[in-house]
Amino acid sequence: MSTPESTYSLLVRNASLGWLASAFVARLPYSMLTLTLVLFGQELTGSFALGGLLVAAFSLGGALGAPVVGLLADRFGRRRALLAMTAAAAVSIAALASLAWVAVPVSVQAVVAGLVGATNGQVGAMARAGWSAAFAGEPDGRRKIEVAMSYETVADEVSFVAGPILGATLAAAVSPVFAVGVAWVLLVVAQTFFAFRLPAVRTLAGGITRGRIPARMVAWLVLSSVVGAVFGTTQTGIAALFQDTPDEVWTGLVYGAMGVGSAVSGLFAHRLLRRWSLPVRVMGAGALMVVFGLGLAATGVPLLLAVACFSLGLCVAPLLIAASTGTERLADPGNTLVLTLLSTAVMVGVGSGASAAGWVIEAWGAQAALALPAVLGVAAALTGVLARASRADAHGVRLTLTTAA
Fold first, then answer.
1. pLDDT for res 405
2. How far apart (Å, rounded) are the C-alpha atoms in residues 296 and 329?
3. Number of C-beta neighbours around residue 237 at 10 A
């Protein structure tokens, strides 16, 4: 069995601690915004359904913008692309905050939220592409890449713990617009810091792809959207359940327990689950998600909800690691575009889940919305069946998606 020294320490040997730290902190601003936007939208409109609509617009913008960021990174270099997106995001988030003082139609609010999502710099995808390029061709490179994908999932989930806690706490203690302002400051500082630690030149060359995304990659895209929907339904349901109650201050902490669970399982998934194929891991995690999702819907007590969210999180990391590892196997080393496609799928899921939960809340209440993750667990398990049938985890079948010089 791999030892700790032969797993995560190899990442430290291949990248400085400063690079790892900046790559983590740079994810924090956007991790704050999904839950903060639910509360910000509810304050602007008085409706959780419309608050969910803003999250849906934010997610749709992210879904459309992510592949563009990937193309720019592969063509001009990740540093230039991220600096450009940081500047654009600073402008769009400032415009979002201004909505607290400028009365505009809901459609305009949704457009602004969409622009915020579209300017997401895709820090996680850029970091993953860096590991893919670094370990390509190395002895035992495939294992090292899976370790890196596991680490990146942990980094994502820890940021998703800190982000909602920070955003929801600031929104409850001060105001949602103050939380948006803090996200703006963090974005400008952290993403700029990280960008200057990325390569200044392109890591890929070649012509624009003339092929199509193979059917075997569809399974990983679908799985990513299902996981995103779990995030969206859970955070919206919990926010609505606690709204205007003495437990409102616990919203971020309860939802953040999901990120803690995902981080815990992500730390060990590449070691404990390596005997099973990626599709089998997905089927098992999906089945467990059904059980834990039913537990989420069965209680309204903050502590028990936190336990249920933690349990759901244990299932999330194996699903995300499977999606990123399987996709990397299909792509050329260092390809940012294919990894941003996964971000697109997650964002589509978050937005769809938040929107669906908002309408369920309006029709049947917050507790009903908390039953949706159990349904999504079934969908995840079925996606594992699809991945196995299509051989989505096969080695040696490369998908070339590079950009013109």
1. 31
2. 34
3. 30
pLDDT given for residue 392 in this prediction: 65
pLDDT, tens digit, for every residue of 277-300? 888 889 999 999 999 999 998 888
Token reading at 102 = 């400028």
CA 34 to CA 369: how far, in whole Å? Answer: 17
> DSSP 3-state assignment of 196?
coil
Q: Which residues contact 104 (CB under 8 A, 6 or more apart)?
A: none
- Residue range 227-234: mean pLDDT, rounded: 92
| CB 106 within 8 Å of CB 53 | yes
Residue 303 predicted with pLDDT over 70? yes
- 3 vs 61, more confident: 61
Examine the pLDDT at 153 and tell me if it is beyond 50: yes
**pLDDT exceeds cutoff 90 at 354:** no
**Under DSSP, is residue 71 helix (H, G, I), strand (E, B) or coil?**
helix
Q: Are 74 and 204 within 8 A, CB to CB? A: yes
- Classify the C-alpha dihedral 112-242-264-282 as positive or negative: negative
Who has greater pLDDT, 350 or 88?
88
CB neighbour list of residue 152: distance below 8 Å, 6 or more residues apart? 124, 127, 128, 131, 324
State how far the Cα of 142 lies from the Cα of 155, in Å rounded to an integer. 20
Tokens 């769009």 locate to 92
From the list 219, 220, 209, 380, the residue with the least C-alpha distance to 290 is 380
314-335 average pLDDT score: 83
φ/ψ of 402, rounded to 5, equals: -115, 170
C-alpha angle 236-263-83 in degrees, rounded to nearest 5: 80
Residue 33 is predicted with a pLDDT of: 87
Separation of alpha carbons 93 and 180, rounded Å? 7
* CA-to-CA separations, 54 to 23, 61, 154, 244, in angstroms, rounded: 27, 11, 27, 20
How many residues make up the chain in this entry? Answer: 405
Residue 242 makes CB contacts below 8 A (sequence gap 6+) with 248, 250, 251, 254, 302
